[in-house]
Specification:
The structure holds 2 protein chains of 2 kinds. Chain A is mostly beta strands. Helix content of chain A is 6%, strand content 36%. Chain A has one domain (13-136). Chain A has one helix at residues 16-23, and strands spanning 28-31, 55-58, 62-71, 86-93, 100-105, 118-126, 129-136. In chain B, helix 7 (159-174) crosses helix 12. Classes of the chains: A mainly beta, B alpha/beta.
Chain lengths: 137, 381
Amino acid sequence: MGIPNYPIHLDDPQLQGFYDGLAMGELRLTADPDTGEWVWYPPEVVPGKPDTVLEWRPVSAQGTCYTFTTVVRCLLPGDHATEVPFTVVLFESDDAPGCRVPGVLVDDDGVEPACGMRLRFRPVPVGDHVIAGFAPV
Amino acid sequence: MKGGMVAITGVGETPFLRRSEEPLMQMMVRACLAAIADAGLKPSDIDGYIGNRMTPGSDDLGPLIGMTDRAFTAVTDVAGGTAPAGQALILAQLAIEAGLARHVIIPYGIQSTKPGGVYGFHAKEPLKAALEMPVGFFGQPTYFASMANRYAYDHGLSEEELASVPITYRKWAEITPWAQRREPMGIEEYRQSRMISTPLRAVDCCLTTDAACAYIVSAVERAKDLPHPVVQVQGVGVGTNNFPHGVLFTQNPCTYEYPGEASAKKAYTMAGVVPADLDLAQVYDGFSISAIVQTEMLGLCGRGEGAKFYAAGHALPGGRMPVNTSGGHMSGGYVPGINLLIEGVRQLRGGQGERQVPDARLCAVAGLGGNSHSTTILARD
């Protein structure tokens, strides 16, 4: 299995918090500081609360796979022929059910990906950046 | 809004090509003129225009098709197939009933081969660019493949069942003279198709097409004086959810739960019919999985039974509920939603040769576009 190599475009600076977390080995999601509820992905404006600034909070590295797919033909701009196949998962941390983080499946040792499988967060260095990875437990 | 007040009186399209040498505007003019001629009208009879945010507006296209009075113009505000196959009909009926227009033209065109490709707009979404693209979660086939795997987990989905969807539509395309992909396809040919993103192969995805289509909406009373049998808009409904494009494919509690049940309920209620009354259906088949789910949402089978519905052959030529009778978007051609609607009109007019559904009088058309969905019920008077 390969790993996609595509630059991170942070057009919304708010999203820097996610990558700050990855650099420190943490998985972080955004929450409403008033209610404590997760608001994920972080929208440009919190619905009905235009003054609210979301907070980045760490979540458990343990969770489950909501769904997955193994990308054989990569549709990202550019040539990624040497990086396929790779498997993308949508991960739900045990601390934030329903909040899904996309990442690559790593250290799978031939284990077939499956919905509902237990996964553990693992940051993955790729070139000059770090992406979210998840390994079977 | 009542059903049976307006009719689709003219339809037209350009050839469905993998790559056209003609620019989008030229194709759209051809499609509009074909629809106007099909309706037995003159360009100057057209006084209403409903465009789409993805295609040229009436100020540019209107003069090129000979419109002399653009008394009513509007732009649909939803994406993909929902717009031309549903929302545009609501706007057209409102305009005609208000006396703002007599004959409304609704064009739609697509250049899949345009620079940047069909997935270019996803890359402009900041959430996708920041969170999804760096891990390779990008492009409709990948999004919908992840839905298919979740659907399989929830309901079961064998390779043969998944394959039965594009194989069914290909059977219809084989007997449709203008379909883009007509070569026969069985399970072996399906398995030879290139895997894109598991479990979706290239033939599980809609075609890339350069083409344009157009249709004309008129009051039923006026339609009776025009050349074709009257095909009424008996019901139309649009459903929406509150997951914007940036989160739609990941954060929707069930990622394959399109707002299709809501649109179908509105359309059937307006039409005063139930799914069992239908003679055929056209289902927005961007991907095998989305066609399966919408087939369920239209009520052609139970929830979770869509794949088995296709595998049992019910949607094939001669089946009890023909679906996508010109090959759909996966084999016929991909001009989002509108060529499915046009095929529904043609089937209800009759005379479609080998692919004609016998005595077709009631057809449902399902359109999907981002976080919206439309259902339209067409009826022959």
